[in-house]
Amino acid sequence: AASVSGAVKVYGKGNTSVRALDGVDLVLPRGGFTAVMGPSGSGKSTLMHCMAGLDTLTEGSAQIGGERLETLKDAALTKLRRRKVGFIFQAFNLIQTLTGRENIELPLRLDGEKPDAKWFHEVVSRLGIEDRLDHTPTELSGGQIQRVAVARALVSRPDVIFADEPTGNLDTTSGAEVLALMRAAVDEYGQTIVMVTHDPNSASVADRVLFLFDGRIVDSIEEPTA
Amino acid sequence: AASVSGAVKVYGKGNTSVRALDGVDLVLPRGGFTAVMGPSGSGKSTLMHCMAGLDTLTEGSAQIGGERLETLKDAALTKLRRRKVGFIFQAFNLIQTLTGRENIELPLRLDGEKPDAKWFHEVVSRLGIEDRLDHTPTELSGGQIQRVAVARALVSRPDVIFADEPTGNLDTTSGAEVLALMRAAVDEYGQTIVMVTHDPNSASVADRVLFLFDGRIVDSIEEPTA
Ligand SMILES: Nc1ncnc2c1ncn2[C@@H]1O[C@H](COP(=O)(O)OP(=O)(O)OP(=O)(O)O)[C@@H](O)[C@H]1O
Ligand SMILES: Nc1ncnc2c1ncn2[C@@H]1O[C@H](COP(=O)(O)OP(=O)(O)OP(=O)(O)O)[C@@H](O)[C@H]1O
Ligand SMILES: [Mg+2]
Ligand SMILES: [Mg+2]
């Protein structure tokens, strides 16, 4: 569903440059749930952004649905992302002037589509945010904002979901509901998910866990138990 | 060191109003380390902001160092906060155009003071961010940004530190270092800390844990074990 090959990402130039990705090969199998763990600064967000086409690699190639991202022009890349990719950002990145509902529906509406009403309702009620949807992010708690960001990535049912620490601001109950919804997206709808997390309990919900260190994958576990 | 009495906070008006705090009495003893846990949306950030004088209560009173915050004019309140309070925000709130170092030193420089060089160095090296200090937040990872926010609250050695989920974006190792530094601030320098956290392991580092639910304190544990 998505993959990178020989991925290198260097930020900056000269002696302040940072080699955030140092040669990563990774295939996300269709319908699989992969977790990525690693120390702060090890390149996890960089990997997510480059695989999702939100940033460009310095060397190597990234593919989504068989298309090599570096060959696409801006408009084609934007359209591919909007149709095939859902992204839950570490810093949420909601639009401050739109309500929760408008933020969630935005990707679909930009494509001229409407959300599946039944799935929309299931997602927001399981996430416990249905009575806060008419508020803008400034009127929401940190965990409510995070759950709106999760809903935005789930509701359009994209082929691939990149989740960058989707439970960092949530209590155990809300966090478990996010993980259960993501597991359902994989098991029932065949979506592909890759999730960055610092929490071993969250990682154990995935089919496999990859460990990133200094921009390289250094270990992996299949069928993890926490 | 800080306290609230009969604290009520209502956002909005009419039938969309939210009673975020519903009568909270809380005394933070000088030199104590208090953790606050509770579901997403239960009022934790609201309690932190009102106790730190960053927001006003609808009913009730908040005090820092014996001064009632609602009696202070803006300038006096700002000065009290800058001198006595350190705040680690759930959304970090760093200044995007300043480097990590400038962000950390800002509270002291606004008071015409300089940081204690030895303590500054101890804090940033224990937090593992010393080689990223000349970068702005846009060039830092999520966990590095969070650690700069932690350093900003610790370096000026304020009387009271309010920490709103200070480890949410950190791996276990970095998170443990943040908690160890906060424990040192309490045990060695007699500072007072109140920390919101969703993680029971983090909460067990505190002297006591309070549980917030629907804007009320519903339970508390002394000397917690995870
Ligand atoms: N400006 C506002 N206007 C309206 N409602 C608000 C506003 N700010 C917060 N709220 C609401 O007040 C309630 C408490 O918010 P608060 O941020 O204190 O929760 P919290 O316990 O910190 O949650 P989290 O764990 O998700 O960070 C939430 O339901 C939130 O939506
Ligand atoms: N625009 C940039 N310019 C320079 N360096 C950058 C930039 N963005 C990220 N970096 C650096 O690249 C490294 C990897 O960053 P990345 O955000 O991928 O880490 P991460 O694994 O997601 O960390 P965290 O767990 O803290 O979120 C970090 O050292 C970071 O400071
Ligand atoms: Mg990151
Ligand atoms: Mg909060």
Give structural attributes:
homodimer; 226 residues; alpha/beta; globular; binds adenosine-5'-triphosphate; binds magnesium ion
Question: How would you sum up this structure, described in words?
Answer:
2 copies of one chain form a homodimer. The first copy, chain A, has 226 residues and is of the alpha/beta class. Chain A contains 7 helices and 10 strands. Chain A has helices at 44-51, 74-84, 100-110, 117-126, 142-155, 172-189, 200-203; strands at 2-11, 18-28, 33-37, 59-64, 67-68, 85-88, 160-164, 192-196, 208-213, 216-222. Chain A has a 6-stranded mixed sheet with strand order 6-7-8-3-9-10, with helices on both faces. In chain A, helix 3 runs parallel beside helix 5. The mean pLDDT of chain A is 95. Chain A binds chain B through residues 11-12, 16, 37-41, 44-45, 90-91, 128, 132, 134, 139, 141-144, 147, 164-165, 168-175, 198, and chain B through 11-12, 16, 37-41, 44-45, 90-91, 128, 132, 134, 139, 141-144, 147, 164-165, 168-175, 198. The structure holds adenosine-5'-triphosphate (2 copies) and magnesium ion (2 copies).
